[in-house]
Write a structure and sequence with these properties.
This protein is of the alpha/beta class and 225 residues long. Helices cover 34% and strands 20% of the residues. It is built from 8 helices and 10 strands. The strands form 2 sheets. Strands 1, 4, 5, 6, 7, 8, 9 and 10 form an 8-stranded mixed sheet that branches. A two-stranded antiparallel sheet has the order 2-3. α4 runs antiparallel to α6 (165-173). It is globular. The two termini are 32 Å apart.
Length: 225
């Protein structure tokens, strides 16, 4: 099995953070996460920093991009925990706004050579251990590694190769926006939830927050440590 340093060298952390937050009523990516009360999108990035030397956040909100840039600046000044020497952090707008997460994936894949650990920016319990396991399942035998939980695939908690890009662009050109709309043209390795429970027994890593009630519940759990 490859070492963690090899994982970092071949993997980009791609955070898709372009949602409208309509149900939340405010920009959920900037909600303060206890105990440090840092913005949610930064919280997600910090949890996964040890897994990659390149971090790309896809966001159309200047406030979200400002948070991402502050992470990079503070890492340089103070030595951010989990940040490795040479780690590059950037925030990009969608190349084609309005295409949803699939457009965000395309925007990210156009800028990498290897693999992209692709996650949503609203997952407060994202597990580095689970993500490291998924990265470890990549290889030439597949083009994407996607978990399945309760019978549902988790395309925004998955790993995609740059090799997926032509199929993603083809799907978008056909007017498709579903994250799985290109899977029939690439080799997808599905990971059953049983394999992930060894790293996150309650599978909280797949939790995202869309409403004030969901955020209140998440904050309560996060406050417990």
């Amino acid at each position: 099995m490859a070492s963690s340093s090899v994982y970092r060298e071949k993997t980009t952390l791609l955070i898709v953070a372009g949602g409208s937050s309509r149900r939340m009523g405010t920009d959920k990516l900037l909600l303060p996460v206890p105990p440090k009360e840092i913005p949610l999108v930064r919280h997600v990035a910090e949890r996964l920093l040890p897994l990659a030397t390149n971090v790309i956040v896809i966001a159309n909100d200047p406030g979200v991009c400002a948070v991402v840039r502050s992470l990079a600046q503070e890492a340089v000044r103070h030595g951010q925990d989990g940040m490795h020497a040479g780690t590059v952090v950037s925030c990009l707008q969608d190349d084609t706004p309005g295409e949803g997460p699939l457009g965000g994936l395309a925007t990210g894949l156009r800028r990498i050579d290897g693999w992209a650990l692709t996650v949503a920016g609203d997952m407060p319990f994202i597990s580095a251990a689970c993500c490291r396991f998924l990265i470890g399942r990549t290889g030439m035998g597949c083009d994407a590694v996607v978990p399945v939980v309760d019978g549902q695939s988790q395309p925004l908690h998955a790993v995609y190769s740059r090799r997926c890009l032509p199929s993603v662009e083809k799907a978008m050109a056909a007017g498709k926006r579903r994250m799985d709309s290109f899977w029939n043209e690439v080799r997808v390795r599905l990971i059953p939830e049983e394999q992930l429970r060894a790293y996150d027994s309650d599978l909280l890593t797949f939790t995202n927050v869309n409403t004030p009630a969901e955020w209140k519940e998440a904050r309560a759990l996060l406050s417990q440590g």
